[in-house]
Design a protein that fits this description.
75% helix; single chain; 11 helices; mainly alpha; 293 residues
Length: 293
């Protein structure tokens, strides 16, 4: 009888779960850092240190810079900058799980736009129902910040742009595109962060260690693990499992920040996850059907 724990598929699943936990835990760490540093400063430091770490991991110096499609890389980096900054501004005003749920509408919309199956209207309806359930209509004390919601939806729109621009040919590998995109995104946000008051204290060793940890949790570790996991997982399995991120974010907010959600909001997260899983499955089925024709 084969040992399931030693199979590449099982190991890839574990790596993917660790990557998702790492990514969503980084949101909790970012919220803690907001108490001491401006939001844009945290965003810039995450992108700066993340790009440096990834540059070392993926050996950016081996890239043929003359072959790079800088227009595609720049659009990717701008989308990444907007996604990162707006998401951080949203979680400063909203519970982590709620912000991720609103943000998740971005990639879900992209998937539904390209899907053409008869079940698509069901997933659209579930996504809309999930968004409605996120609002605590019967709990005035739990009202959601409308500006935070706007930031989260803006982050979702940038996430959609990130997916679309990431599919354009850049002349280099996906790993190097992410690395250069993060650096360009940092360059976009840095002037704004400096203008709004970026303290030099961020470069003090006692503070820098927190930003390095944030960069590892939010970029280096999840990107590296996802790259390995994708070698053994189908797009269907990968997309289905990553649909669990709103729930993981909510759990991270509960464990590390003490954020509590209403039962209707937990139900909303579940509905959005079901919509995302369903969309992933029907989209994958449509692609398989077209490839078989």
């Amino acid at each position: 009888m084969p040992n399931l724990k030693n199979t590449p598929h099982f190991q890839a699943l574990i790596m993917l779960f660790i990557a998702m936990i790492s990514m969503q835990s980084s949101g909790s760490l970012a919220k803690i850092l907001f108490n001491q540093f401006p939001i844009l400063t945290v965003s810039v430091m995450r992108l700066l240190l993340g790009s440096i770490i990834l540059a070392l991991i993926f050996k950016i110096w081996r890239v043929d810079f003359k072959a790079i499609n800088w227009k595609s890389v720049a659009s990717y980096g701008i989308a990444l900058a907007g996604m990162n900054a707006l998401f951080y501004m949203s979680i400063a005003r909203l519970p982590l799980g709620i912000a991720v749920s609103f943000e998740f509408i971005g990639p879900l919309s992209v998937a539904l736009f390209h899907a053409r199956q008869k079940f698509d209207f069901i997933w659209v309806g579930l996504a809309i129902l999930g968004l409605i359930l996120l609002f605590p209509f019967d709990q005035a004390a739990q009202n959601l910040d409308p500006i935070g919601i706007a930031f989260a939806l803006g982050a979702g729109a940038c996430w959609a742009m990130y997916i679309i621009s990431g599919q354009k040919p850049t002349g280099i590998s996906g790993n190097h595109t992410v690395c250069l995109g993060m650096f360009i995104g940092m360059l976009c946000l840095m002037p704004i962060a400096i203008f709004t008051g970026m303290p030099l204290a961020v470069f003090e060793p006692s503070n820098l260690i927190y930003f390095i940890t944030l960069a590892i949790l939010a970029s280096a570790l999840p990107f590296s693990l996802e790259m390995i996991a994708l070698r053994s997982l189908t797009p269907l399995v990968f997309g289905t499992l990553t649909s669990l991120e709103p729930a993981i974010a909510a759990l991270s907010g509960f464990v590390f920040l003490g954020e509590q959600l209403l039962w209707t909001q937990w139900l909303a997260l579940s509905v959005i996850i079901v919509a995302s899983i369903g969309c992933t499955m029907t989209t994958n089925r449509a692609k398989k059907y077209l490839s078989d024709e």
